[in-house]
Design brief:
By secondary structure, the protein is of the alpha+beta class. It has a domain of about 100 residues: 2-Layer Sandwich (Alpha-Beta Plaits). It is built from 4 helices and 5 strands, in the order αβαββαβαβ.
Length: about 150
């Protein structure tokens, strides 16, 4: 019977405990679906709102969720780009589709709707950049007007 709590503490110094949860000869195998990085671009749009309020809302969202790479905004639309770690595209897209709505109240974001979503894997993102397609890498991290 395995020792527990105080019984384990009374083991003599240098005494080894046998591992019983792993059979001899078993090897560690990587799980089949490890999380991957996905580049997400979320576009939102709606009625005009004061630029200062849009910027302040996006700044609050970035403060609450530092994973955001960059946001661009105007008085009637915005684009948010970031990396998401998820098992697959479906999980990354589900998180992205909830982002704006779940944080609209706490970040005081405009009542805009999601009008676009792009989720691509890391390899595709870097391939597009290397070929000169797609948005340039987010070197100027932060919140900027269009």
């Amino acid at each position: 019977m395995p020792r527990s709590g105080a019984e384990g503490a009374s083991r003599a110094a240098g005494e080894e405990r046998a591992l019983t949860s792993v059979a001899a000869g078993d090897r560690y195998e990587e799980p089949e679906e490890l999380p991957r990085l996905w580049h997400v671009t979320l576009s939102v749009s709606g009625p005009e709102a004061p630029l200062k309020e849009v910027r302040r809302g996006l700044e609050q969202l970035a403060h609450d969720h530092p994973f955001l790479l960059t946001s661009r905004y105007a008085n009637d639309h915005a684009e948010i780009r970031y990396w998401e770690e998820a098992r697959d595209l479906h999980d990354a897209a589900a998180v992205a589709l909830r982002l704006w709505g779940e944080h609209r109240q706490t970040s005081r974001l405009p009542p805009w709707e999601i009008v676009g979503l792009e989720v691509i894997d890391r390899e595709t993102y870097h391939q597009r950049i290397a070929e000169g397609y797609g948005p340039p890498p987010a070197t100027s991290v932060g919140i900027h007007p269009f």
